[in-house]
Amino acid sequence: IFSALKSHYENLSGKRRYVNLQRYLIVRLLYETGGRISEILNLHLDDVRIKASRYFILIRGTKTDSAERTVEISSELFSELNNYRNLYDVKSRLFSTTGGKTHYPEDFSHWISKFCKELQISCKVHPHLFRYLFIIEWIRGGKPLNELMHRLGHSDVSMTIYYARQVARLCHDIDI
User: Fold this and answer.
1) What confidence tens digit (pLDDT) does each residue in 80-139 have?
2) For residue range 14-39, what is the model confidence (pLDDT) as tens digits?
3) Cβ atoms of residues 29 and 108 within 8 Å
4) Average pLDDT score, the chain
5) Confidence bin at 65 (pLDDT 50/70/90)
6) Res. 163: pLDDT tops 90
7) Could you give the CA distance from residue 74 to residue 149 in angstroms, rounded to a whole number?
């Protein structure tokens, strides 16, 4: 999906390039951070940070039980976000419509489903799927559940364990 999105926006210009570059970056952030779509759409310019040669993004929970957390991102994604905000002179909210309005999670969900149909991807793709993919990679990497809990913004480890068990049920090579 990443490469298809990237080649899609690279072949466009003007408003369409801006919109599709945003979509690409949103998908990258969903996958790389495990964030919820509402959290990613709520990011602001100053939420993208660098400290001691490491790159971070501040994710603010939009649900009452989700915590504000700082999540490390790759240098590649940091660079892409910087290029995007410099290219389009982003002032406050990282992702907004060309008219400066807020994106809604439902609109993004509708778009990603439509885009994946165009790519002839047979499974149902929605923003939360990237959260599951993030969890799969985390668990396969042998990283601790308490760190995963922080990354996902869970206030209770039981929710993180629930997700981990759902992932293990779907992926036969993961044992929880």
Assistant:
1) 999 999 988 888 889 988 788 888 899 888 888 888 888 787 777 888 889 988 998 998
2) 888 888 889 999 999 999 999 999 99
3) no
4) 87
5) low
6) no
7) 20
100 Cβ contact partners less than 8 Å away, ≥ 6 residues apart: none
**Amino acid at position 87, single letter:** L
Radius of gyration of the chain (CA): 16
pLDDT at position 38 is: 92
**Contacts with 58 (C-beta within 8 Å, 6 or more apart), sequence order:** 43, 47, 49, 68, 69, 70, 71
- C-alpha distance from residue 98 to each of 14, 103, 104 (Å): 10, 10, 14
Name the amino acid, one letter, at 8.
H
Q: What is the 3-state secondary structure (H, E, C) of the chain?
A: CHHHHHHHHHCCCHHHHHHHHHHHHHHHHHHHHCCCHHHHHCCEHHHEEEECCEEEEEECCCCCCECCEEEEECHHHHHHHHHHHHHCCCCCECCECCCCCECCHHHHHHHHHHHHHHCCCCCCCCHHHHHHHHHHHHHHCCCCHHHHHHHHCECCHHHHHHHHHHHHHHCCCCCC
Which of 51, 43, 55, 36 lies closest to 153, judged by CA? 36
> Do the Cβ atoms of 20 and 8 come closer than 8 Å?
yes
